[in-house]
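Can anyone check this?
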Amino acid sequence: MSGLAPTGSGPVGVAVIGAGNISKQYLDNLTTFPDVKVLVVADLYEEAAKARAAEYGIPEWGGVDAALSHPDVEIVVNLTIPAAHVEVATAAVKAGKHVWTEKPFSLDRESGIDLIKTADAAGIRLGCAPDTFLGAGLQTARRIIERGDIGIPLTAMTTFQTPGPESWHPSPEFLFQRGAGPLFDMGPYYLTTLIQTFGSIRKVAAVGSKAKDVRVIGAGPKAGQEFTVEVPTHVSAMAQFESGASSHSVFSFESPRQRMGFVEITGTEATLSLPDPNNFDGDVKLWRAGEEDWTSIPATGPANGRGMGVLDMARSLRAGVPHRATGNLAYHVLDSMVSITESMESGTFVDVASTAPVSPALPEDWSPESATL
């Protein structure tokens, strides 16, 4: 990993590029963490950046260059649309900034590898969502598994099913375009959780379908407008991991019944029900052979929400140690999703060439609210 020498002192300067809906979730947290300081909000539409900066009392705003040229910005938080992720991240790397990107890391292997090579050559860190696996819910599940409470982890089942986001999202078109759909939009949460449990994915097989070629926006100023669906809206995927474990996952925008956040890990001694991997909190449930019901285990540790991965990156930057939600992990998730897509198209198993080590566990007493730098 690049950039492991300790760097600087004091709070880490941050710029946010992309003033859309998700920027609120990040800024709600980043503006309260004492170890980071948000200096700039930038957006292609400068008025959006101005409004968001004013909302959070951030001193500067403007176009993308306002973030990339700021001398005190060390980490750029890239919250642009998926199609712009690599372009903006590459520009930030070339400007000497470390980069945290919303998922997906890239839309294809080639651009993702190029970004990693460019960052490595420049000694720049890359980080990427999801950072939900750092939250109390999934970290508590990890401690239970590593303690041996379920025996040897063998298999997993995950399910994400909804009718589709066009019923509530005011501008859902991008969620049905290349780089999105239920696999690329929600897959990173579930696949990251599985990779953190079982290790790298070695091969995948999948089938997919698209129930409608056209959908209708159901809410907001564009309600009633039609748009074209470009990607499969139901995906059923199997994965085999380097440990020999296997999983089956459903990602769907085609189910009238909503089933979200279902993750079960089965081991030789027990089954563990994990909280929603799209969230940072949630209790864990354990079922042991011979017992009549689940045992609920309260989650412990921080669960502040989006931005925890940025904070971990900032503290790791100062300490000169690896951060946890790395670009390499995100690329492996991307590589796995591209492989799933290729399997849907070919009807065969597809090998996944990349690997990613399991990230170090987050200390249970890790506190985002504490000033440590």
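Reply from J.R.: I decoded it. DSSP finds nine helices and 17 strands in the chain.
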